[in-house]
Amino acid sequence: MHHARRNKIRARIWLCIIFLLITGAHYCFYRFSIDRLNTYPVSQGLTFGFVLWTTVVLGGMWLRYGWARYLLIILICLGIISFSWIALLVQSESIDSLPELKRLVIYGLLLYTAALVPLGASRTLRAYLAPRTAGER
């Protein structure tokens, strides 16, 4: 019983770390989306959508829904693709190299990528989200 409790705590610590990484990425994407040099207002809607849905899915993971891990991986990959594309479009429209905007997007993408690592590699997290057997809490 003690071992199971320790693994549950470790898994929840991983979830908190993932939450912090994703929150940092969202902050970078938010700053990118409201910048006056960003000519694509759709990035504000994307940022709001990703904040909303990653939070909902992380809540599902906290409640031990196994499918939520896969959905979060898909959402993060879609976020990486979306914000990379918008950053390339903004960059292609500008004569200036826009170093501050690029830095924000790169930091956000790095934080999203860092969040993918424990989602895919953590055995503790996978075990936490695995189907429970009778009598398990």
Major β-sheet profile: none
User: Can you count the helices?
Assistant: 5
Let me know the number of strands: 0
- Molecular shape: elongated
**Uncertain spans, ≥5 residues at pLDDT below 50?**
none
Which secondary-structure class do the elements indicate? Answer: mainly alpha
Average pLDDT for all residues? 90
Cα gyration radius (Å):
17 Å
Q: Roughly how much helix do the residues carry, as a percent range?
A: over 70%
Quaternary structure type? single chain
In whole angstroms, the N-to-C terminal distance is 10 Å
Q: What is the domain total for the residues? A: 1
Order of helices and strands: HHHHH
* Beta fraction: under 5%
A few lines on this structure:
This protein has 137 residues and is an all-alpha fold. The chain contains five helices and no strands.
Written account of the structure:
- The chain is mainly alpha-helical.
- It has one domain.
- It has 5 helices and no strands.
- The chain has helices at residues 2-34, 42-62, 67-93, 99-121, 123-129.
- Helix 1 packs across helix 5.
- The mean pLDDT is 90.
